[in-house]
Design goal:
single chain, 142 residues, alpha+beta, HIT family, subunit A, five-stranded antiparallel beta sheet, 4 helices, 26% helix, Histidine_triad_CS, catalytic activity, HINT, Histidine triad nucleotide-binding protein
Amino acid sequence: MDNCIFCKIINGDIPSIKVYEDDVVLAFLDISQVTPGHTLVIPKKHVANIFEYDEDLAQAVFSRIPKIAKAIKDADPEIKGLNILNNNGEVAYQTVFHSHIHLIPRYTDEDDFSMNFINNGDKYTPADLQALADRIAKNLGE
């Protein structure tokens, strides 16, 4: 895609600090380095988000995540954990519309990254949750 920054990185038009590359994915250090080692894993095929993946692409891309994540962790004995994030759509904080997975090493619970989830569980009855699950399952087509 002509105006996609990640496609330009894949094509070598924009430099990156590569961590891993094969015929399906490219992994490189995110320029923001939320924490040291913050890596992006992107499919070489341009897809905007998870909703554009087919099963084969998903299997190929996501099967590489553990290998890259383990390499990041093994690179620094101070790493205690790792967040794996994938934002899909502007409302979900996606800013580059070429699918990418963030691998963010965690050193302490006070490092430069945080996630806050609000517990809305008390807003739903078991019947509400079952109805939601049923609507989702209906769309799986199985």
